[in-house]
Design brief:
Layout (H helix, E strand, L loop, with lengths): L3 E5 L9 E5 L2 E8 L2 E6 L13 E3 L2 E3 L6 E3 L16 E2 L1 E4 L2 E4 L7
Antiparallel strand pairs: 1-10, 2-3, 3-4, 4-8, 5-6, 6-7, 9-10
């Protein structure tokens, strides 16, 4: 695995997505449910940044049409989206948040 530092854990606010770019991949980092998640920052339905969405119960909701994606699997559970979005492994090392975009979990 190829983990790269993207930010400090202390820079992430609970339930507030943060957009980062890593190796030309747009990623939404989300600290929620006692973990940090990294998900591709684009709704599979309408190409809207998920980092602009609302976070609730380990899900992120696209603000445009309301599709919700599970942060653990990338799978949508509310239409109109039907295709999952990639989620990436996250590792915490001290106060560093490390993400591996080369090896999506799904």
């Amino acid at each position: 695995m190829t983990f790269e530092r993207v930010c400090a854990l202390s820079e992430l606010t609970e339930d507030e997505p943060r957009r980062v770019e890593l190796d030309d991949v747009d990623v939404a980092l989300i600290r929620t449910c006692g973990e940090v998640f990294a998900i591709f920052d684009e709704c599979s339905h309408a190409s809207i940044p998920l980092s602009e969405g609302e976070v609730d119960d380990c899900h992120v909701e696209c603000w445009l049409h309301g599709s919700r994606f599970d942060l653990r699997t990338g799978k949508p559970d509310v239409l109109p989206a039907t295709e999952p979005v990639p989620v990436y492994p996250v590792r915490i090392d001290g106060d560093d948040v490390l993400v591996d975009v080369a090896n999506p979990l799904n």
